[in-house]
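TASK: fixed-backbone design
INPUT:
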């Protein structure tokens, strides 16, 4: 540790002796992109004056000095590039980002035509920006599009004035936080075309059409926004009638703590199959490490529910066991317990492996959603398959496995008593679980929801609800399989004669096996 401390101290002294960071200054007329490429890793500063449009294809940091202006567009194609304090004036578009993990800090765009800031098939963190004076009637202040498979783009602390839409996402995942949007002619902030967005702490005022919009099969969470002074569009479109919030065409939206001050009779409208939910389907618990704490409580609740079902079905199992015991020699009573055939043992191992994988899948979803706040939150399979269909098939496989264990154990008289009650409880819970997933697939197909809420999941929290149900089924199945294997071992031991003794025999119709014959001496 002392050596590490000395090394850190030496590094700090060396940095102090080197003095402040030296920047490469670009004078007007030079190609900014070429200068940045010749000085990899350096900070490039734009000197006072008007600079021509440029493309940045290296992961450099560009800073604008006072009085420096870029006339026309800036294109960023290098992952990890940074633009700080840059001012862009005029041209068809301001800043175009086509890379991942780009940072735009204090970027100001004025007087461009169609876009102020545009992120296409990329991701960016955009903070404290300003967009104004857009010249086209179809202009968009900040647009993020075609980035659903990219890291989440964050737009925070920006001021957007004018344009048809202030901040809009298409087929992307976004966080729109603490921005001020005004003077738009269609929508203030829009999360649309199968996007997933958190819109929180924004102020939208003095706009036409609608303040906050969630459309085209998107998932939106709108929290603590302030929307006021929204005028109806004169085109007569119902979704632009001066509402504060509109959800349109099979979108799922959650509202929390918003202040809506508009003249429309319905400040919040859901149209074309959209829904407002009390809890957002993909999140219940707080983010960060605090999200790792609830699994214990959820697990206890799941086992308690299973225990209640087991208490309900226990008398049925005991009654059937007594009825079979009173009627020996019938077709329903094949006699004493028999050995577990090897193919059945292999089936048990394979089925339990599938069920264990299914449980791991849901544990990973819990981790992704509530602990890591991961970009991808569809478990292990979600990147390559349709999640709803995949989980329906998994649950059908688990149901078939539980049914097979139940029927095999009962027919071999290896599953009775408490073990049978636990397994029957798991069978009841899993049967409902399949119904839940059938409902989810129907919603997925008919409504186009990528992640459907199902019957109860949308109200209880989708990820945690299915984690709990799977855990209950796994615990019940494990208890039943353990009882089955234990009975099979006892039956096998009873069927193996001791040295010098013959195995007991049993004749159909007798109450018990005949005693073995002692050897002659």
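OUTPUT:
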């Amino acid at each position: 540790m002392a050596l590490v401390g000395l090394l850190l101290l030496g590094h700090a002294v060396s940095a102090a002796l080197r003095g402040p960071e030296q920047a490469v200054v670009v004078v007007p007329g030079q190609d900014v992109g070429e200068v940045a490429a010749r000085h990899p890793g350096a900070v490039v500063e734009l000197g006072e004056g008007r600079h021509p449009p440029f493309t940045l294809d290296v992961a450099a940091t560009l800073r604008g000095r006072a009085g420096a202006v870029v006339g026309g567009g800036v294109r960023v194609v290098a992952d990890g590039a940074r633009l700080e304090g840059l001012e862009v004036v005029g041209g068809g578009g301001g800043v175009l980002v086509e890379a991942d993990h780009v940072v735009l800090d204090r970027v100001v765009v004025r007087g461009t035509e169609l876009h102020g800031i545009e992120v296409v098939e990329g991701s960016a963190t955009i903070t404290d920006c300003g967009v104004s004076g857009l010249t086209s009637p179809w202009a968009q202040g900040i647009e993020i599009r075609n980035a659903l498979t990219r890291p989440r783009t964050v737009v925070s602390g920006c001021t957007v004035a004018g344009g048809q839409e202030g901040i809009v996402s298409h087929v992307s995942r976004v966080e729109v936080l603490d921005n001020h949007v005004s003077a738009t002619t269609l929508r203030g902030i829009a999360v649309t075309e199968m996007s997933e967005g958190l819109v929180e702490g924004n102020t939208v005022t003095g706009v036409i059409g609608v303040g906050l919009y969630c459309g085209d099969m998107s998932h939106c969470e709108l929290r603590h926004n302030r929307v006021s002074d929204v005028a109806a569009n004169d085109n007569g479109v119902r979704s632009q009638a001066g509402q504060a919030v509109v959800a349109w065409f099979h979108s799922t939206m959650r509202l929390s703590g918003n202040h809506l001050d508009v003249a429309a009779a319905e400040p919040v409208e859901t149209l074309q199959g959209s829904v407002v939910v009390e809890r957002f389907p993909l999140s219940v618990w707080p983010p960060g490490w605090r999200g790792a704490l609830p699994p214990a409580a959820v697990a206890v609740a799941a086992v308690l529910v299973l225990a209640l079902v087991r208490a309900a079905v226990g008398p049925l199992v005991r009654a059937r066991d007594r009825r079979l015991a009173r009627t020996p020699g019938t077709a329903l009573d094949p006699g004493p317990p028999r050995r577990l055939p090897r193919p059945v043992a292999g089936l048990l191992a394979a089925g339990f492996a599938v069920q264990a994988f299914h449980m791991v899948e849901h544990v990973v979803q819990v981790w992704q959603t509530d602990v890591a706040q991961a970009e991808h939150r569809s478990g292990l399979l979600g990147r390559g398959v349709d999640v709803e269909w995949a989980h329906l098939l998994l649950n059908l496989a688990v149901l078939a496995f539980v049914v097979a264990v139940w029927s095999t154990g009962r027919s071999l008289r290896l599953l009775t008593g408490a073990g049978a009650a636990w397994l029957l409880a798991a069978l009841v819970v899993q049967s409902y679980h399949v119904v839940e997933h059938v409902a989810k697939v129907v919603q997925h197909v008919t409504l186009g929801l990528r992640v459907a809420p199902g019957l109860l999941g949308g109200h209880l929290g989708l990820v945690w609800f299915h984690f709990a149900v799977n855990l209950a089924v796994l615990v019940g199945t494990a208890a039943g399989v353990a009882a089955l294997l234990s009975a099979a071992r006892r039956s096998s031991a009873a069927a193996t004669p001791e040295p010098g003794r013959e195995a007991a025999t049993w004749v159909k119709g007798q109450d018990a096996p005949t005693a073995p014959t002692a050897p002659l001496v």
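COMMENT: The CA atoms of residues 32 and 54 lie 6 Å apart.
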